[in-house]
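Researcher: Going back to the complex we discussed earlier. I've cleaned up the inputs and rechecked each line, so this should be the final set. Can you rerun the prediction on the complete assembly and write out the structure?
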Amino acid sequence: MNDAKIRLYVDQPLGAGQTVPLDRDKAHYLFGVMRLSEGAGVLLFNGRDGEWLARVAEAGKRGGLLHCEAQTRQLRMPPDLWLLFAPIKKARTDFIVEKAAEMGAARIVPVQTDFTNAERIRQDRLQAHAVEAAEQCGGTFVPEVADLVRLDRLLAGWPEGRQLMFCDEGFADGGAATAPSAPLPCRASGQLPQPWAILIGPEGGFSPSERARLHSLPFAHPVSLGPRILRADTAAVAALTLWQMRLGDWDQTA
Amino acid sequence: MNDAKIRLYVDQPLGAGQTVPLDRDKAHYLFGVMRLSEGAGVLLFNGRDGEWLARVAEAGKRGGLLHCEAQTRQLRMPPDLWLLFAPIKKARTDFIVEKAAEMGAARIVPVQTDFTNAERIRQDRLQAHAVEAAEQCGGTFVPEVADLVRLDRLLAGWPEGRQLMFCDEGFADGGAATAPSAPLPCRASGQLPQPWAILIGPEGGFSPSERARLHSLPFAHPVSLGPRILRADTAAVAALTLWQMRLGDWDQTA
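Model: Rerun complete. Updated structure for the full complex:
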């Protein structure tokens, strides 16, 4: 019987009969905070082996042991989509990472643009947000959060075959989003999603040289997100929706 | 010269030569916090007359006076779209209101469903969030936030001619979003957006009787927001994007 209410991301392999040792933090959460006792069910996923129902075999203050019982959900990989965004204020940056994990991005890349103030990010904190989003939302995959990278360096070493959709929102351009030069392609029915990336500009917009470079790249596709100015975190969710509908794994008849 | 950095929502009429008196709060913000002095420019909007550049004519601690100089932006009305949502935790409810204002909803209606815990909302606080979102995002219109209403009462008195798109996300249905019975229509090119509403379910999903009723309504259209479970705030932005792309005022070639 699957009576488990708690979903937990773990690093260890999961499989029939597999034993999963718990570190101090997880033991404290499960036994101290959530008051689970021996025999209680927990849903586990590790981003590779799907979701498993496990039972508490040993519950201690500083550790514990879970036993995998049965697979409850198969691994569901997101499309090969990267979300590139310029870090903004802490709460909104956290939010973008959470939403990217929920909306099915495979990799999250904070980028430093000419108009980005952030010199560094807390990669470990952002990665923890991605894990928490997957735990909360029934995901079986956790996107990797990369370290902060300069946009020009990322574009200089751009991987062959990956397309880039970029959204030019912000106040810098006087309120009008750049009109797309060509419509975004649409995935043909039956074709699998292709490697793509979405780039969300910083709140101040891209610099003129960044914008010129982006428009000159053969793999880059500008898109408009409507006639209103969107904050970067709103633009991230809207762009992920647009991409998933047209090129990703959403049901295209919806 | 438009040197104004600050955008402010006011209640008063705006027009050439119009004088706008400031209450204590706004005077404190402009002169105490932002340190504006006489002659400084401020952008004003009231949701009816577009955006106007005004100049500080009198600056005091308890009040002040602005003079309208020139219109800087015409009024841009959103499509006639309502966003109905079940209030959730405070921060995420605030977020939904902010995003609805940014994404171009005309009216925001918190609804009480069978699985909603909220008994009341702070309508004034949510309305202030909608105002702030419009101030920050260059909007010239502020959606009205309605008082909390029971979903069954709202549906019983549903206005003729308004369509309803509903999103059935959440944990209650075991993770699979309901497949749409028919694709959402698409606005014909040249046709203006029609009256619609979007309904976002509570985190626990709709109750079986609510779901049955929604599916039986001739004006209701179920939609799927992809294969992943979305939190209610994510679903709100994704649903607004989907609607704006297919039926609203976004450029449909994007």
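Model: Worth noting: DSSP finds six helices and twelve strands in chain A.
Researcher: Good, that matches what I expected from the previous run.
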